[in-house]
Design a protein that fits this description.
Blueprint: E1 3-5, E2 17-18, E3 21-22, E4 32-34, E5 40-42, H1 45-60, H2 69-92, H3 99-125, H4 129-153
Antiparallel strand pairs: 1-5, 2-3, 4-5
Helix pairs in contact: 3-4
Length: 163
């Protein structure tokens, strides 16, 4: 029997029971499988076997890739670095002279980037709101740090006079 639950927080595991079985008593691991509608299900052992076989078949058919931590970390670092370089390039094109204005410019760019990427995950794929809010907060704080550093490092420009 598959029990559907939209989100299961790690702290809820001891309180959550599916069909009288707690997480601790179900094969000694967290038996959560995606249900395809954005929800998470708690599965019985036979259902887990079918799910594991389906995942193995997808992997064998080339639909899934093995996880390489170093590669993922390198890609994430490169992505964040490119984002920082692009937003600093945009800031350098402005005539914003004040420290707060420069930080604010980069902060607004970060808010836009966080909204553009994460709200779609919540809307289309059913990612939990807490995850989306946490990830957006992390991105926005990252852009705030970039803005502070850029405001200190970039030379101040005087406003252009148009003739």
């Amino acid at each position: 029997m598959l029990t559907q639950r939209s989100t299961i927080h790690p702290h809820e595991r001891s309180n959550f029971a599916a069909g009288g079985k707690s997480f601790e008593r179900m094969n000694g691991k967290d038996d959560l499988i995606p249900l395809g509608n954005g929800a998470i299900g708690v599965a019985e052992p036979e259902e887990l076997g079918r799910h594991d076989a389906a995942c193995s078949n997808r992997r064998a058919a080339g639909h899934a890739r093995p996880f390489a931590f170093a590669k993922a970390l390198t890609i994430e670092f490169a992505t964040e670095l490119v984002e920082a370089i692009l937003v600093i390039f945009l800031l350098a094109q402005t005539t914003i002279a004040s420290f707060a204005g420069r930080v604010g410019f980069v902060l607004v760019a970060g808010i836009l980037a966080a909204i553009a990427t994460n709200v779609s995950y919540w809307n289309w794929y059913g990612f939990p709101c807490l995850y989306i809010a946490s990830y957006m907060f992390t991105q926005i704080i990252g852009f705030l740090c970039i803005g502070i550093v850029a405001a200190f490092v970039l030379p101040k420009r005087s406003p252009r006079v148009r003739t």
